[in-house]
Design goal:
The protein starts with 14 loop residues before the first helix and ends with a helix. The strands form three sheets. A seven-stranded mixed β-sheet has the order 1-9-8-5-4-2-3, with helices on both faces. A three-stranded antiparallel β-sheet has the order 7-6-11, with no helix packed on it. Helix 2 (33-46) packs parallel to helix 8 and helix 10 (301-313) packs across helix 13 (362-375). The chain has two domains: 15-249, 3-Layer(aba) Sandwich (Aspartate Aminotransferase, domain 2), CATH 3.40.640; 251-375, Alpha-Beta Complex (Aspartate Aminotransferase, domain 1). It has 13 helices and 13 strands. Helix content is 38%, strand content 14%. 50% of the residues are buried. By secondary structure, the chain is α/β, with parallel strands linked by helices. It binds pyridoxal-5'-phosphate. Pyridoxal-5'-phosphate binds next to helix 3 and helix 4.
C-alpha cells in the first residue's frame, strides 16, 4: 500500500469555480479571458516582455526551435542530464544535439565546457535549470553573445525561481515553462513560452496559431486571416487556463509551502550528510530556488537502489532520473556512447528524488528521512 506517493497535484480551492466561469462565459477554446489573465499575471510578476500559453513546456520548446530557423545539421548545445523533450524539440527541426556534461554541485550544464563544444554550426545553447536552481547564466549569455548564437532556457522546473535577482525564463532569448501536474504550478498539462525580445513576438504568435496571423487579425492589425508561416496548434484551452489561474493566484503561498518542505528535508537529512552517507542539494548564494524537487545522492548506485526499494516496501515512492540522453538508444543513433560524460553518468546512478508536493506534511518528511537513515 502506498502511504506517500511521489507527487500529488495540490489544489488551491478555486480551480473548479474558475473552470465553471470559463464554461459559463462560453469561451472554452484558447485565448479567452483566463489565458489573458494568466499571461498578464506572469508578465507582471516575472517582469517578462511577453508570455504565451502553450499545451506544454515541450510545445513551447518546439516553438522556440522553429523561431531559431534551424536547418538540418545545425547544432544545439544542451546537457545530457536532461528531459527527453529538451533535446527532441530541436532534433525535430533537424538539429544535432551536442551534449555537455554537468556541474557536480547544481547538476546544471557545466558552463566551462560549452566553448569547446562550439562549432560554426552551433545555433543555440539550451540552459536547463535543474530543480529550480539557475544555470550560470552570466557565463552562458556572454559566451552566446560572443558567438552570435541564441540561448533557450528550459525553465520547466524554474517557474518563480531567480538568478541574481532576475526571474528564470527572462534571461535567455526564449524560455519554456511547464505547468505539468508534477511541477510547482499546474493545470495538469500546460506550459508557456517566454519571449524576451519584442521583435520575436509577432512570429511566435503566428507559429503558435498554426502558422496563421489569427492573433494579429483579431486585434485588427491585418485585414486578412491567412497562412503566413510554419506553425502548429500550440495553444492551451481556456478551461485549463482557468485552472492555472487559480494556482497562479496562490504563487507565493505555494512557494512558501515548498520552501518549508525543502528546509525540513534538509535539516532532517543533515546528520546523514555529516556522517558522509549522502550528499544534499546545493543552492549557490546568487540563486533563489523555487524548491521544485528534493534530491539526494547516495554513495553508489547499489545503495541508491536499495534505499529506493526499501522505501517502496514501506509505502514511500521515491524515483530517479534522468537516464543520460547520450547513452539512450536515440543518443546512440547520434553516435554518442557510454562513458563520454562521466559526471552525468555518475549522478544518474546515485540520485534519488524524494516525495515532494505541497500538502506533504512535516511529520511525513521526518518519517521519510528517518526511514532513509534506518535503511542506510
Ligand atoms: C517537465 C519538464 C519538461 C516537459 O514539460 P511538459 O510540460 O510536460 O512538456 C521539459 N523539461 C524539463 C527540464 C522538465 O522538467
Amino acid at each position: 500500500m502506498l502511504k506517500i506517493p511521489f507527487n500529488k497535484a495540490s489544489l488551491t480551492g478555486n480551480e473548479l469555480r474558475y473552470i465553471q466561469e470559463a464554461v459559463e462565459q462560453g469561451h472554452i477554446s484558447a485565448d479567452g479571458s483566463f489565458t489573458k489573465r494568466c499571461c498578464e499575471f506572469l508578465e507582471r510578476q516575472f517582469r517578462a516582455q511577453k508570455i504565451l500559453l502553450t499545451p506544454s513546456c515541450t510545445h513551447a520548446l518546439e516553438i522556440a526551435a522553429i523561431l531559431l530557423d534551424l536547418a538540418a545539421g545545425d547544432e544545439v548545445i544542451l546537457p545530457s542530464f536532461a528531459f527527453v523533450t529538451t533535446a527532441n524539440a530541436f532534433v525535430l527541426r533537424g538539429a544535432r544535439p551536442i551534449f555537455v556534461d554537468i556541474r557536480p554541485d547544481t547538476l546544471n550544464l557545466d558552463e566551462a565546457q560549452i566553448a569547446e563544444r562550439m562549432t560554426s554550426r552551433t545555433k543555440a545553447i539550451v540552459a536547463l535549470h535543474y530543480a529550480g536552481v539557475a544555470c550560470e547564466m552570466d557565463a552562458i549569455m556572454s559566451l552566446a553573445s560572443q558567438h552570435g548564437i541564441r540561448v533557450v532556457e528550459d525553465a520547466a522546473q524554474g517557474v518563480n525561481a531567480k538568478y541574481k535577482g532576475r526571474f528564470l525564463g527572462t534571461i535567455g532569448d526564449f524560455a519554456a515553462y511547464s505547468f505539468h501536474e508534477t511541477k510547482n504550478y499546474t493545470c495538469g498539462e500546460g506550459g508557456a513560452l517566454v519571449l524576451n525580445h519584442a521583435q520575436d513576438v509577432e512570429r511566435a504568435e503566428i507559429v503558435r496559431q498554426k502558422g496563421t496571423n489569427r492573433n494579429q487579425f483579431f486585434r485588427g492589425e491585418t485585414d486578412k486571416y491567412t497562412w503566413t508561416d510554419l506553425g502548429s496548434s500550440y495553444v492551451l484551452s481556456d478551461v485549463l487556463a482557468a485552472f492555472l489561474f487559480a494556482q497562479l493566484e496562490q504563487l507565493n503561498e505555494i512557494a512558501l509551502k515548498r520552501r518549508l518542505i525543502y528546509e525540513r528535508y534538509f535539516e532532517a537529512l543533515k546528520p546523514l550528510r555529516d556522517a558522509g552517507k549522502l550528499v544534499l542539494p546545493v543552492i549557490p548564494q546568487h540563486c533563489e530556488s523555487n524548491f521544485h524537487l528534493f534530491h539526494v545522492l547516495f554513495q553508489s548506485q547499489q545503495i541508491r537502489n536499495q534505499v529506493m526499494d526499501g522505501l517502496k516496501s514501506k509505502g514511500i515512492l521515491a524515483v530517479f532520473h534522468y537516464i543520460p540522453l547520450h547513452s539512450s538508444p536515440m543518443g546512440m543513433k547520434f553516435g554518442y556512447r557510454q562513458g563520454q560524460f562521466p559526471i552525468t553518468e555518475d549522478v544518474s546512478g546515485r540520485l534519488l528524488r524524494l516525495p515532494f508536493y505541497n500538502t506533504l506534511s512535516m511529520s511525513e518528511v521526518d518519517w521519510i528521512a528517518e526511514s532513509i537513515g534506518k535503511l542506510l
